[in-house]
């Protein structure tokens, strides 16, 4: 029976000091939902006995079937500590890495976290991840070391052993937090140092100051600080050492505070002096934790579970003065007896909720630092925001709910709810008055019937309508609902940070690009206050604010929702009716001075793609509508329509994909859907010519074997000057380009990839310069000092990496022309064209006065486009390139090229080349002149409208009659140039040794020694590599870190689980790109090789296999013979 009614919760919501917003975080399967069950049971929502078995917050069917949580869900609980009552808004989050975006959405709404660690598995990858999340969002954690029962029953540890083990786990956890802390300090140091003069003076850095702060912030977990609990949530018990300090303080007449400091650690009780002494370990004494705590618990398990000693059990119950029902104490199942006993003695809910109240902050304690972090992202300074915006900080801090305080709400996700489950559509229990009324109606009906019997049948009919009045109403309601085309509605998962949200209130919905400064200006122009009552889809490009009327407010109660009329600051809530205004997350406020909250931090990016189509073609509209709902409901999934028209979803991993498909089929689209096999991304690259071939024989320079089949195709190609260098003319002979392809050093490629966001900033800046737009939401005319510094550092590091890679790269950073594909990718185009001094990429680093124009030659943009196209779809299988540098060595353009007729002459004749260069120079001089005169770049203009005839070249043409023809031809130049640059890049790429790059997953597996062999077998079979296999100290468990190609990963987890009888279960996270060191075009040539690999080497050549699979999928030409040397078929059944 539920112990707390809604009225009490509403009352508590109004006292922020008595509210705690907390989430439970952990690695997968460490026991979050089980712990939540115990807390839920303390409110009587589920029975104590079902706690741990029901997993109440896993309300989805697939969560129950698979036994893992897939979405975060919230419940409001009541907790009484002495005379004080508290409201706990608790959020349970998933631990599987595929759903880590759900963790981000939960953490954003909370002030504190309960971090759970399974003491057998210890610190796992997601433990790192969640601690990091908590750190990034400035939320305070307490630690629950869970599953202590496993140490007793499974690992059969002695109490002293268990104590050492627990100490070790605690050290591991603290190591993670201190790493986070140091990383944070380091980044603060680096960002502070250049601009902050005071830090220059402070040459020697005092670590102790920060270490103090670290301890002050309670970031270290330690039982004596009161932020560590020990538990076995499944058995319903848990404790902090404070509880035992209290018990033994009274029992032994000792100082409680003293005990609190010594119960954990190297202390023992001197039995003679009755004093607590230090140095238990070196003196071979039992530490207090073992003697006073663990031994007692071990004794209970021993009596109840191991020896099943009834007498002893009764004795324990008596000595602890517990009241256990006869039903429990006589139960056949010893575990139930144990749970009843331990649950009564050390109830985990009391221990955990008590510590939550004591150690975790209330909404009132929100720190200024956190508020600033929420309101403004790193690139911007809080004090650069408008004054009205800065003023909102005090409203955050005061957390008041009065009328005059602006309302600020953050929605972290939209989650789907069955329309039928909304409180307004649910049958609620009848109140006493309603029951009374119904009774009255029934009595009247009965009386009428009795009189009807005497007066005749006719009356019976007339009484019928009135008797079913209640029912008719229900029918009307449900038919009204049927009008809606879907049975799913979205409820926003949100928190009120300031003010009080009320039903019927109008609020602004602030989009991610909303700028308070602009909106405040606009609003003062429009006198009537609220502007633009629009929906999301009606917004134009520069509008980022819509207005919504709040229709429904809900309280989350696990599987149920309760309707509310208003929710004051500091509480987690659900808001209905926002689906047309918010896609995944967003900010609501009563003032436009409020900025849109900073983006949620997602740890995992989606990588697994599948294409979807309906089984019945006519269902396409339903699929599209379903995908729209899925996109809104899942914080991480990406839904897109590819150029090919395919509908594609990108998910974080296999488990996430399965959930998305189930959701689509059963909830959102409700049609049969066929999903393609996963589309795994690849990359294409080139490498230095290898020195040994596939069979480890060295390749001599002249040996034609050194070239593969593909490279030999270009042997007679006149455009190929040497391997990796090509020269191509446009068909009109108007332009010529000479391009070389070389592999980029690995370090550079990785560095470019890591800094994609800076490259993007740089690109936006240059585009803004070129088009002379002044977009305040991007960068505008000048960069912020901090961004400039970051770009400068990026450039310096890039230079350093190039220099380390070899002298040949000297100076190349200054000649970078473009990054690609999509202008940010890890491939480079370098400008080595003689006499073409293009404005450098790094122009923004010069001071603002000189940084005025971008000088670029005509058709510069076409060259960049050609490069972008080539790097986006490589020649192997139309996948993007990675780590390739294209060097434009010559680029000639002009009328003289055509006049000379013979191509050979043009190429070889140095005189002509010189002429061309002269024209080039002429153009350049003219260009610069114009620049000087107008102080704007003409070339820049022509970039914007690239098909426009170019004034310089028109003037350069000598014959007036030719003018029209030239202009016409030039109209095609840009297109032809794009095409030859693309072709040049591809050809120069193809004349080098090409390789496929595979996306790699990193996986952490925990397994016992006996299954290691099988495990390595599975990893090896899937072309994976084991990077690390270490035995966890003090346990039989090995921590294995391996990498496997994503393309080989499907069914990997399942395979591992089967081979190890469910003992090991891996989690896969995208790690890096790896070159498959096999030439996809290699075919055996020598007799030995043919004997070894067969004529086509198809079975061995992994790279070729991957390449051909992708080509087949994309409908590209595949160079393979289906049947070779087919044998005569035999029928298996013999004709009789
Ligand atoms: N022995 C033992 N098992 C436990 C304990 N707590 C949880 N478990 C078991 O651990 C498994 C996982 O528990 P859950 O509560 O679902 O774990 P979770 O952290 O919510 O998992 P995800 O939500 O999927 O990340 C279940 O089989 C539980 O019965 C415990 O204290 N002792
Ligand atoms: Mg769970």
How would you describe what is shown here?
- With 1136 residues, this protein is α+β, with helices and mostly antiparallel strands.
- The protein has 39 helices and 34 strands.
- Strand 2 and strand 3 (84-92) form a beta hairpin.
- The model is unreliable at 191-208, 456-484, 701-705, 773-781 and 898-967 (pLDDT under 50).
- The site of magnesium ion has 4 residues, from helix 2.
- Residues 32-33, 69, 92 line the site of magnesium ion.
**How many H/I helices?**
39
The outline comes out as globular
Bound molecules: guanosine-5'-triphosphate, magnesium ion
Estimate the strand proportion.
Answer: 15-25%
Radius of gyration over all CA atoms, rounded: 36 Å
How can the largest sheet be summarized?
8 strands, antiparallel
Order of strands across the main sheet: 14-13-19-10-11-18-15-16
Average pLDDT reading? 78
Class by SSE composition: alpha+beta
Proportion of residues in helical segments: 40-55%
Unreliable residue stretches: 191-208, 456-484, 701-705, 773-781, 898-967
What is the terminal-to-terminal distance? 76 Å
Number of strands: 34
Secondary structure elements and pairings:
Elements: H1 6-13, E1 19-26, H2 32-41, H3 61-66, E2 73-81, E3 84-92, H4 100-108, E4 112-118, H5 125-136, E5 140-146, H6 148-153, H7 159-192, H8 197-201, H9 207-216, E6 228-232, E7 237-239, H10 241-252, H11 256-262, E8 267-270, E9 275-278, H12 288-306, H13 310-319, H14 326-329, H15 334-345, H16 348-359, H17 368-375, H18 387-398, E10 408-418, H19 432-455, H20 458-467, H21 469-482, E11 488-498, E12 500-502, E13 506-510, H22 516-525, E14 545-549, E15 552-557, E16 560-564, E17 566-568, E18 572-576, E19 586-589, E20 608-614, H23 620-633, E21 638-641, E22 647-651, H24 654-668, E23 673-675, E24 682-686, H25 709-713, E25 720-722, E26 725-729, E27 735-743, H26 746-754, H27 756-771, H28 785-805, E28 816-820, E29 827-831, H29 860-872, E30 884-893, H30 896-899, H31 903-908, H32 910-934, H33 938-944, H34 951-956, H35 963-990, E31 994-1008, H36 1012-1021, E32 1025-1031, E33 1037-1045, H37 1052-1059, E34 1067-1075, H38 1087-1093, H39 1102-1114
Parallel strand pairs: 1-3, 1-4, 4-5, 5-6, 29-30
Antiparallel strand pairs: 2-3, 6-7, 8-9, 10-11, 10-19, 11-18, 12-17, 13-14, 13-19, 15-16, 15-18, 20-22, 20-23, 21-22, 24-31, 25-26, 26-27, 27-30, 28-29, 31-33, 31-34, 32-33
Bound molecules: guanosine-5'-triphosphate and magnesium ion.
Magnesium ion binds near residues 32 and 69.
């Amino acid at each position: 029976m539920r112990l707390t009614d809604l009225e009490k919760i509403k009352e508590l919501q109004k006292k922020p000091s008595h509210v705690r917003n907390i989430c439970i975080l952990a690695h997968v399967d460490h026991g979050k939902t089980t712990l939540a069950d115990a807390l839920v049971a303390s409110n009587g929502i589920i029975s104590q006995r079902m706690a741990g078995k029901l997993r109440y917050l896993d309300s989805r069917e697939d969560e129950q079937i698979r036994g893992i949580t897939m979405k975060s869900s919230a419940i409001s609980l009541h907790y009484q500590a002495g005379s004080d009552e508290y409201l706990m808004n608790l959020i349970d989050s998933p631990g599987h890495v595929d759903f880590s975006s759900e963790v981000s959405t939960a953490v954003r709404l909370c002030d504190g976290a309960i971090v759970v660690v399974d003491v057998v598995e210890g610190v796992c990858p997601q433990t790192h991840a969640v601690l990091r999340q908590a750190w990034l969002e400035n939320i305070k954690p307490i630690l629950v070391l869970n599953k202590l029962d496993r140490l007793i029953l499974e690992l059969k540890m002695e109490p002293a052993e268990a104590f050492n083990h627990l100490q070790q786990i605690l050290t591991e956890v603290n190591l993670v937090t201190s790493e986070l802390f140091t990383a944070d300090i380091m980044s603060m140091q680096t960002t502070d140092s250049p601009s902050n003069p005071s830090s220059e003076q402070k040459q020697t850095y005092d670590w102790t100051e920060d270490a103090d702060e670290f301890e002050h912030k309670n970031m270290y977990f330690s039982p004596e600080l009161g932020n560590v609990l020990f538990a076995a949530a499944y058995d319903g018990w848990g404790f902090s050492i404070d509880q035992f300090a209290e018990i033994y303080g009274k029992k032994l007449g000792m100082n409680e505070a003293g005990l609190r400091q010594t119960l954990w650690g190297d202390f023992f009780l001197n039995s003679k002096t009755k004093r607590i002494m230090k140095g238990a370990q070196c003196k071979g004494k039992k530490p207090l934790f073992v003697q006073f705590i663990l031994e007692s618990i071990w004794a209970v398990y021993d009596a109840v579970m191991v020896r099943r000693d009834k007498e002893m059990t009764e004795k324990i119950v008596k000595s602890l003065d517990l009241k256990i029902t006869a039903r429990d104490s006589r139960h056949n199942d010893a575990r139930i007896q144990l749970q009843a006993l331990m649950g009564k003695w050390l109830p985990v809910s009391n221990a955990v909720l008590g510590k939550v109240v004591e150690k975790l902050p209330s909404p009132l304690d929100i720190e200024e630092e956190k508020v600033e972090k929420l309101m403004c992202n790193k690139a911007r300074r809080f004090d650069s925001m408008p004054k009205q915006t800065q003023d909102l900080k005090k409203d955050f801090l005061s957390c008041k709910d009065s009328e005059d305080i602006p309302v600020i709400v953050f929605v972290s996700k939209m989650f789907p709810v069955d329309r039928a489950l909304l409180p307004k559509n649910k049958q609620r229990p009848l109140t006493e008055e309603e029951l009374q009324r119904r009774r009255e109606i029934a009595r009247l009906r009965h009386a009428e019937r009795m009189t009807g019997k005497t007066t005749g049948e006719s009356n019976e009919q007339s009484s019928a309508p009135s008797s079913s009045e209640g029912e008719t109403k229900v029918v009307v309601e449900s038919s009204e609902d049927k009008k809606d085309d879907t049975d799913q509605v979205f409820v926003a998962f949100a928190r009120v940070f300031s003010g009080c949200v009320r039903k019927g209130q109008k609020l602004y919905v602030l989009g991610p690009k909303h700028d308070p400064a602009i909106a405040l200006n606009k609003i003062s122009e429009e006198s009537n206050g609220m502007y633009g009552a629009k929906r999301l889809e009606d917004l134009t490009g520069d509008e980022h604010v819509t207005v919504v009327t709040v229709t429904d407010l809900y309280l989350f109660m696990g599987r149920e929702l309760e309707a509310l009329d208003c929710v004051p600051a500091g509480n987690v809530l659900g808001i209905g009716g926002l689906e047309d205004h918010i896609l995944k997350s967003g900010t609501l406020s009563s003032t436009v001075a409020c900025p849109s909250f900073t983006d949620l931090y997602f740890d995992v990016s989606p990588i697994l793609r599948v294409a979807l189509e309906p089984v019945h073609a006519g269902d396409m509209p339903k699929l599209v509508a379903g995908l729209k709902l899925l996109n809104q409901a899942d914080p991480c999934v990406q839904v897109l329509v590819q150029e090919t028209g395919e509908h594609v979803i990108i998910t974080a991993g296999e488990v996430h994909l399965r959930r998305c498909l189930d959701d689509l089929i059963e909830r959102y689209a409700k049609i049969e859907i066929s999903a393609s096999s996963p589309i795994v991304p690849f990359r294409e690259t080139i490498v230095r010519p290898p020195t040994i071939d596939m069979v480890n024989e060295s390749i001599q320079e002249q040996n034609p074997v050194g070239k593969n089949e593909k490279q030999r195709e270009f042997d007679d190609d006149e455009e190929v000057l040497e391997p990796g260098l090509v020269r191509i003319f446009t068909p009109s002979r108007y332009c010529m380009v000479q391009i070389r392809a070389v592999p980029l050093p690995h370090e550079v490629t990785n560095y470019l990839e890591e800094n994609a966001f800076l490259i993007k900033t740089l690109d936006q800046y240059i585009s803004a310069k070129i088009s002379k737009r002044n977009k305040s939401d991007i960068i505008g005319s000048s960069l912020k000092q901090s961004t400039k510094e970051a770009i400068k550092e990026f450039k310096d590091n890039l230079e350093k990496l190039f220099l380390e890679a070899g002298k040949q790269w000297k100076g190349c950073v200054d000649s970078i022309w473009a990054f690609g594909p999509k202008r940010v990718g890890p491939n480079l185009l370098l400008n080595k064209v003689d006499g073409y001094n293009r404005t450098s990429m790094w122009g923004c680093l010069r001071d603002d006065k000189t940084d005025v124009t971008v000088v670029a030659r005509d058709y510069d943009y076409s060259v960049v486009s050609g490069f972008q196209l080539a790097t986006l779809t490589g020649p192997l299988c139309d996948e993007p390139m990675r780590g390739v540098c294209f060097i434009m060595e010559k680029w000639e353009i002009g009328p003289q090229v055509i006049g000379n007729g013979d191509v050979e002459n043009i190429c070889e004749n140095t005189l002509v080349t010189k002429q061309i260069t002269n024209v080039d120079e002429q153009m350049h001089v003219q260009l610069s002149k114009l620049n000087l005169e107008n102080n704007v770049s003409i070339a820049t203009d022509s970039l914007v409208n690239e098909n426009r005839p170019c004034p310089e070249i028109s003037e350069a043409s000598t014959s007036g009659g030719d003018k029209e023809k030239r202009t016409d031809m030039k109209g095609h130049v840009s297109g032809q140039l794009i095409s030859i640059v693309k072709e040049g890049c591809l050809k120069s790429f193809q004349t080098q040794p090409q390789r496929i790059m595979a996306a790699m997953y990193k996986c952490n597996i925990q397994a016992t020694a006996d299954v290691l062999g099988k495990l390595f077998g599975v990893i090896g079979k899937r072309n994976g590599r084991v990077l690390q296999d270490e035995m966890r100290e003090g346990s039989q468990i090995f921590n294995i870190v391996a990498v496997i190609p994503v393309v080989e990963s499907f069914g990997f987890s399942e395979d591992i689980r089967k081979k190890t009888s469910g003992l090991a279960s891996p989690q896969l996270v995208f790690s890096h790109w790896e070159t498959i060191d096999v030439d996809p075009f290699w075919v055996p040539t020598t007799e030995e090789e043919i004997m070894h690999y067969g004529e086509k080497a198809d079975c061995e050549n992994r790279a070729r296999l991957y390449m051909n699979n992708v080509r087949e999928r994309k409908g590209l030409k595949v160079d393979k013979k289906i049947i070779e040397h087919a044998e005569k078929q035999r029928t298996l059944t013999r004709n009789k």
